[in-house]
């Protein structure tokens, strides 16, 4: 039996070869925390970044055009109105449609993807109102 056990040990991989410095190193949860695969992914298509930043690029183009036509005061006034409208929201446990922001941008008359299929992050699942308000106010 000792000869059989020796042959099994000879064929096994020594433990010293499993070091943490190599191309196949394991992720150390205690030192590095949980890994996020989503943050490490590169865009899969050249237009993906352009589509993610579409609204930002559209706003920049509109502000530049407005500045060239009416002067510096017009885009500054519009940006101030955007900030004021973004601050007005419903309570944290109620969904806010941001209709005032859509009206300022001119998107109120357009039907988009989010109007039909909705954003999954804004689902109709309502949380505990008291806990959500306490969290927003910093009491929890």
From TrEMBL:
Entry keywords, A to Z: Chaperone
Key word DNA damage present: no
InterPro entries recorded: Ump1
Gene Ontology cellular-component annotations: cytoplasm; nucleus
Protein's GO biological process: proteasome assembly
Family per similarity comment: Belongs to the POMP/UMP1 family.
Protein known as: POMP protein
Gene that encodes the chain: Pomp
